[in-house]
Amino acid sequence: MTSTLTQQVEQAAPQPTHRVAVELAKAYRLLNHGPTVLVSAAHEGRRNVMAAAWNMPLDFNPPKVAVVIDKQTYTGALIEASGEFVLSVPPVALVHQVVAAGNQSGRDVDDKFEACGLRSAPASLVAAPLVEGCLAWLECRLLPEPAMAGRYDLFLAEVVAAWADPAVFSEGRWHFEHDAQRSLHHVAGGAFFATGEAVQA
Amino acid sequence: MTSTLTQQVEQAAPQPTHRVAVELAKAYRLLNHGPTVLVSAAHEGRRNVMAAAWNMPLDFNPPKVAVVIDKQTYTGALIEASGEFVLSVPPVALVHQVVAAGNQSGRDVDDKFEACGLRSAPASLVAAPLVEGCLAWLECRLLPEPAMAGRYDLFLAEVVAAWADPAVFSEGRWHFEHDAQRSLHHVAGGAFFATGEAVQA
Predict the structure, then answer these.
(1) CB contact, 8 Å: B33 with chain A?
(2) Is the residue at B200 inside a domain?
(3) Confidence class of residue B86 from pLDDT cuts 50, 70 and 90?
(4) Quick check: B92 and B8 in contact, CB under 8 A?
């Protein structure tokens, strides 16, 4: 099974992505199934991106999210400086780029997007860029909870805009048709699961 | 695909579960891929259980977790009173019980485990029970962050013991072989995804 999926990954070069606005009251559904995300941030002409499996919705409407981001990381520093970030939900097709974004620091390269083979697109309400080729995006503004960031590297934020590729998410639900376009769930050390079969109770 | 999985669910009655201790430093791997969990709590002879998709690891070692639990719920009240809870990771085979646990209140029934068709087993270090038939379990003690519970229904806790069914998790990794024994990822309204194919970067 894995080798078939790997072949599909090789064949599926990221295409410029369609983006359709997601109603804010349904933005939690972009994260509710627990995908690993890319976190991007920008401040004063610098930008960066990293991977984060530790994320979850925190409220429905206005939508809020929680994400754990090591303050020592360059992305963490850009978030603390700018008060903004974007969560992008990457597909299986980007698994190598996700691992690259998780393994190197933006402090060691001119531009980590380029170093990881990721392209960006402008967000609508925040300076942090969207990651091109992803399935969904949440533009976020930090909530003022510095004690949580200080004690736990835990960042709480309000989602101010949300987007999804209508090929995989529309009318408030995910509909994965191609294995390379499923979302990813990291376990450890570059081992992921793809989002699997639909189960309706 | 869904109908096949539903047939498997019907055929897979929960069996008494094997449990093997998971090294605390690797307990985060039980939640890292973003499964929906059952949260159980007990206090002064009362116990309850509910479903929670909004959970994530918060630290590696000692392991910590974050979970969103409406304080108005009976489970939330038992957690605040006892300072303890258990997260159990349910399989596809328990999807109907998970939805039942998410849809009714323990205040309306004598015992919600029985009302939902769930069985319990004693935990090792906390009074909250484990949910029998699950894939993995994390015994948790609340961290003293009442402002987070107050403002966001956000409970932070330290994991004091962790267990997994060695049929699906051993030596620090998940290995799902039967579709009814995969973990679950809730989206909304009883629509879930099963954990899918392994993807190694």
Answers:
(1) yes
(2) no
(3) very high
(4) yes
**pLDDT for position B108:** 86
Reported ipTM exceeds the 0.95 cut = no
Token pair recorded at residue B42: 């007990």
CATH of the domain at B121: 2.30.110.10
Which chain A residue shows the shortest CA-CA distance from B30? Answer: A187
Distance from CA of A129 to the nearest CA of B (A): 24
pLDDT digits (tens, 9 = 90+) for A33-73: 999 999 999 999 999 999 999 999 999 999 999 999 999 99
- Note which residues in 101-130 of chain A have CB less than 8 A from chain B: none
What are A75's two structure tokens?
């992305």
**Considering only CA atoms, which of A29, A27, A130, A136 is closest in space to residue A91?**
A136
Whether residue A201 lies inside any domain: the answer is no
Q: Which residue of A has its CA nearest to B53?
A: A32
CB contact under 8 A, A196 and B199: no
> A134: exposed, middle or buried (C-beta count within 10 Å: 0-12, 13-18, 19+)?
buried
pTM above 0.90, yes or no: yes
Domain count within chain B: 1
Domain assignment present for B173: yes
Distance, CA of A93 to CA of B79 (rounded, Å): 41
User: For A94, which residue in chain B has the nearest alpha carbon?
Assistant: B201
One-letter identity of residue B27? A
Contact A173 B179 (CB under 8 A): no
H or E element, residue A101: helix A95-103
| Residue A188, domain extent | 2-194
pLDDT band at B3 (very low <50, low <70, confident <90, very high): very low
Asked whether residue B54 is assigned to any structural domain, the reply reads: yes
Six-digit token string for A91: 């597909």
CB-closest option in A64, A191, A196 to B196: A196
User: Is residue A117 classed as helix, strand or coil in its secondary structure?
Assistant: coil
Q: What pLDDT, in 10s, does the model give residues B156-182?
A: 999 999 999 999 999 999 999 999 999
